[in-house]
Specification:
Elements lengths: L3 E2 L6 E2 L4 E4 L2 E4 L6 H33 L19 H16 L12 E4 L9 H15 L9 E5 H10 L5 H4 L5 H10 L2 E7 L8 H17 L3 E5 L3 H8 L1 H11 L3 E3 L5 H5 L1
Parallel strand pairs: 5-8, 5-9, 6-7, 7-8
Antiparallel strand pairs: 1-2, 3-4
GO molecular function: ATP binding
Protein name: Putative IstB domain protein ATP-binding protein
Keywords: ATP-binding, Nucleotide-binding
Length: 271
């Protein structure tokens, strides 16, 4: 095949690309010299990479919106955290480490659980903010790998309200609403379960709460999947709230990691 002029830069070049057609080598030409062809290919790869980055960002946004995190925490992350004391600084760093070490692109089987708690300064110490920071950082570390982080976030009262609501569905509503078994399957099998405000669900008869919590913790323990709890209960109080079996399994999965919040009321001082 004779030399040709590049349709883009007009340089004269010799077509050399071939393809096999019916067992014969046939010259394949796109009208571009090697330099322009490489430039076009590089630009195409760049555009594809930009599209992939945007797709990943959109997917992260969807994951965040669907996980159950309260909307007011969608913009609260580690960068907006204003720690002020040595105690809070240590807790903050423990949460950063937890998020940075969380397995990405795979099921986090065997990864440790974490308990964020405050007793003396129960309200407003920033536990939920730090839990949100962990979730944001896990999502941000995901770069589009095949396995995206599957995180579910419930406050303890909201989880039990959602489960109990299913008990009152009519037969028609049962076909169109999420069932209790579907809710429990989700919290048992997600990559990370965030259970905020543990201890806020108060019942005269603790049997239902403790049985449900045992089912969740036991299933996740069997699968090796982590739980992030926040609460205002010390170890003794948490054992009473969850029941001894659930407490034992949960703290075994923490592998010795619990972070106690110190300092004053973060929300008040932040303004």
């Amino acid at each position: 095949m004779p030399d040709q002029n590049c349709t883009q830069c007009t340089t004269t070049y010799t077509p050399c690309d071939t393809l096999t057609l019916y067992g014969r080598a046939v010259i394949k030409d796109v009208g571009l010299c090697p330099e322009c062809r490489n430039a076009v290919a590089a630009e195409r790869q760049k555009q594809e990479a930009l599209v992939a980055v945007q797709d990943t960002a959109n997917r992260r946004r969807t994951l965040l919106e669907d996980c159950g995190m309260p909307p007011e925490y969608h913009r609260r992350n580690f960068s907006t955290w204003k720690y002020r004391t040595p105690e809070l600084d240590k807790v903050y760093q423990a949460c950063v480490n937890y998020a940075e070490e969380f397995p990405i692109g795979q099921r986090p089987v065997g990864y440790r659980s974490l308990y964020l708690w405050s007793e003396n300064h129960a309200v407003g110490t920033g536990k939920t903010h730090l839990a949100a920071g962990i979730v944001h950082e896990i999502y941000n570390r995901w770069k589009g790998e095949d396995h995206s982080p599957f995180i579910l976030w419930y406050s303890e009262p909201r989880l039990f309200a959602a489960i109990q609501a299913t008990f009152n569905y009519t037969e028609e509503e049962q076909g169109t609403h999420v069932s209790a078994s579907t809710i429990l399957k989700g919290v048992a099998h997600c990559d990370l379960l965030v259970l905020d405000d543990t201890g806020k669900e108060r019942r005269a008869n603790k049997e239902f709460l403790q049985r449900t919590m045992f089912d969740i913790i036991d299933q996740r323990d069997g699968l090796g999947l982590p739980i992030l709890l926040t609460g205002n209960l010390n170890a003794t109080q948490l054992k009473i709230h969850l029941g001894e079996a659930s407490y034992s399994r949960f703290f075994a999965s923490c592998k010795g990691r619990a972070a106690e919040m110190g300092g004053g009321d973060y929300r008040q001082e932040k303004g």
